[in-house]
Amino acid sequence: TTFLFNKDDYIGEVRVRPGAEDHVSHMFSGKAMRVSDFSPPSDRCTPLLIMHSISSGGVLFTMDLPQQQQQPDGLTFLHSSCLHEAKTAMVQMEAGMELHLVAMTKRSDGDEEFSQLQHTQQPCFWGFLTGQGSYASCLTMLNLRCLGLVFDLDETLIVANTMRSFEDRMDALTRKMRLETDPERAAALAGELKRYQEDHSILKQYMENDCVLDNGKIIKAQTEMVPSSSDATPALERPIIRLDSRNIILTRINPLVRFTSVLVRIRPAWEELRSYLTAKGRKRFEVFICTLAEKDYALEMWRLLDPDARLIPSIEVEERVVCVKAGGLKSLANVFRKGQCHPRLSMVIDDRSNVWTEVDQPRVHVVPPFVPYYAPQAEVGSLLPVLCIAKNISSTVRGNFFKEFDEVLSQQLGSVVFDTDTSTLPKPLDVSSYLV
């Protein structure tokens, strides 16, 4: 038996029966369970459908009145308001977790149809556990038919070089050329070296003079204001040169230190993919970044890719750009550590899958590395650039996910009642099932 409170108001004694995966209900046995708040109401998906999609461990426990107990008014009101407003009663837990009580209905004895009367007469709930904030975020996403999309940066969306990295690559290529005996391979290496040298020259001009010579014209750097991404970081002014015809942007990570100047090449068809993600003002995906790069660099690369903050609002960019320490593995659990999405509801676009945890690797759409110096025509000459293929795959994944979500899962859970054997519930959908 557990004593249920709505904040400080005692609303009744309830019977809690643990499920197979339950590791929570024993904490309330003979003690108080305190509802601290309610989730936002849902206008499209039922709370059960959302919880089934994102909860840790499925149905943890079932909760109803002990037999022969008179029905308390407070409990009846709690149940009916949750049921009719499509919201959950929330119990705050330790370690950044939330317990959600989902109002359920009971089937009439011997009747397959639901008794409307019993909706109010029989308060009963299923208990689910989620990360803090996860329910509210995923409710919004699922109602809008939106999934999570996590991008890598380097060699997936961009290739960036400093003076030092250019020089290291040119030295390595020069050494390779000295040893190469095959004329065809030697010519390919020479072509690659020439492309590095050209961009190195552009970066050198920018670093030294804040301007570059492009097709006989002097292009001067324009100051761009970089808004503060957090209270701890001040706003910056960076000297930027955009050579759109070449897909090149020149920037300086620390505006006061010229050696932090970077030449960035943006992958062809990025703008097409970006436009798709927010077409007609409707978000199809919530975007996140996960990279092995340093934070300041990653934030600036993303600002260049999304200059008008269409994909990630400026106030959220600090949280949504996640940097993993060298040697560490990327994980969606870490990307969504603040409950902004759920790994099962998200996919990744990266040039490598082995940098992700094993559980997340099936959710990665692996793109060929972006290698503009080695193979400059690989994407320009292609009928369908890599990021267009990624766009098409993202669209197909999203379409198939929500087709099953709406036409199958929603129908299956629509017939579930309090007394349904929870072990017979369908498996939650996972984006990885549609990434083939």
TrEMBL record:
Keywords assigned: Hydrolase, Nucleus
Catalytic activity, EC: 3.1.3.16
Primary site of residence: nucleus
Cellular-component GO terms for this entry: nucleus
Residues annotated as domain FCP1 homology: 142-390
UniProt-listed InterPro entries: Fcp1 (IPR039189), FCP1_dom (IPR004274), HAD-like_sf (IPR036412), HAD_sf (IPR023214)
Molecular function via GO: RNA polymerase II CTD heptapeptide repeat phosphatase activity
Subcellular location(s) of the protein: Nucleus
Gene3D superfamilies: HAD superfamily/HAD-like (3.40.50.1000)
Catalytic activity: O-phospho-L-seryl-[protein] + H2O = L-seryl-[protein] + phosphate; O-phospho-L-threonyl-[protein] + H2O = L-threonyl-[protein] + phosphate
Name of the protein in its database record: protein-serine/threonine phosphatase
Organism classification: Eukaryota, Viridiplantae, Streptophyta, Embryophyta, Tracheophyta
